[in-house]
Amino acid sequence: MKPHKTNPSSPKLSAAIVTPIAVLLVLALVSVYDMTFSNRYPHINRVAASSSSPSPSLPSRANSSSSSAPPATTAESCDLTRGQWNCMKFGKPSLEFMRWRWRPDGCDLPRFDAARFLEAMRGKYMAFIGDSLARNHLKSLLCLLSKVAQPVEVRMSPEIDVTGRAVRRDYHYGDHGFTISLFWSPFLVKANQSNATLGQWDLHLDTGDDRWAAHIADFDYIVLSGTNWFLRPSLPVPRAVRAAFRTALGAIAAREGFRGKAVLRTVTPAHFENGEWNTGGDCVRTSPFRRGSRALGAVEAEYRGAQVDALRETEAAARRNGAELLLLDITEAMDLRPDGHPSRYGHSPGGSVEGSFVVDCLHWCLPGPIDLWSELLLQLLIAHPS
Fold first, then answer.
1. Cα 117 from chain centre
2. Which positions fall inside the Trichome birefringence-like N-terminal domain (predicted)?
3. Using the 8-state DSSP alphabet, how is residue 382 labeled?
4. Is 352 a catalytic residue?
5. Percent helix, strand, coil in the chain (nearest 5)?
6. In terms of Cα–Cα distance, which of 170, 182, 206 is closest to 132?
7. Annotated catalytic residue 335
8. How far apart are CA 225 and CA 223, in angstroms?
C-alpha cells in the first residue's frame, strides 16, 4: 500500500520497480513514538551533525508524549482550513491524534512561536516548492501564524497548469514585510504531459522548472519537497528522484544572487491499509505506532536516500556561492503517525481531494502531526541558524 505505487491523479499508471539504495545517511533522523502519557512537551537543543551528515540536522531519536495542552490552532481559529484537511469540521471520529507531540530524546521541542517566526522573517521572502504536500505544509504554517497575523493573498490571476492547479500563490504579511509563495512543481524539473488519459509525463531531469527557478535570486528561504508524482515505469523511481532533486538543488546552488537557505524536506509516508487509495485502502488507526513496532518501508527509505544523495552532491557548490542547503528530515517521525491523516474526513461528504482521491491517507489533518514540520523549521532556520 503506498500511494507512490499508484497515482491518485492517474489511476492507470503503475509504479516503477525500485532498487535498494546502497548508501544511507549515517545520522538519520529516527523518530519513535511510545505510548507513555506525559504532560511534558518538547524543546530542542542543537546537535552537531556528524561528518557524514550532509547538512545541519536536528536531534535524531525521539519519543512521543500525550499532552493535555490544547493544539496551537484549531479548525475554528484558522480560516484557511475551511475547505480541505479540516478533520474536525468534517467529522473525523477520533481527535486523539491532536494530543500527541514529537519529543526528541534528551531535550525538549518548544511549541511553535508565531511572533518569533514573523519577527525573524521581517522583510524576507520564503518559497514553498513541490506538490500538494508542500501546500499541506504551507497551510499548516499559515494556520500557526494566524495566532499573530493573517496574510493577504495576492490575487493576481494565477497561471493554471494542465492539471488545473495554480502554478503560484502569494501570501503577504504587510506589517512584517514578509511574503510566502507557493509554487506548484510536483517534479521540480521541466515536465510536459504527454498523455493526459494515462497520466504520462515527459520529464527533463537535467532542466529546472523555470516557473520557480527563474525567481531563485528573489528568495531568502526555499523549502523544497516532492516525490509523490515520480511514477514513470520507464525509469527506476529513486534514480529519477535523485536526478530531479540534484537538478533543483543545483539550480539553487548556482544561481547568482542567492545567498539564502534552501531546506530539503524529506519524503513523508502514507498509511493506506487493506488496499491502496483506489482499491479500498483506508487509515483508521487512532494512535501512533508503538516504539519498535515497525521499520521504515523500503520505498520511503529509497526515496529519502535519493534525496539525501542529491543534497550531498550539491551542498559544496552552494556553500562556495554563499548559499546553504539544509535537511529537514521528517520521514521516520511521520511514518509512526498513521492516526493523523484525514481518511474520508478531509473534505465535505461526497467531495474529493486531489482529483479522484476520496480516502486520503497521504496528506495530514490541520491541525495535526504536520505542525511538527514548522516547529522544526523554526529551529533549523531561526533558533539555531549557524
1. 18
2. 70-108
3. I
4. no
5. 25, 20, 55
6. 182
7. no
8. 7
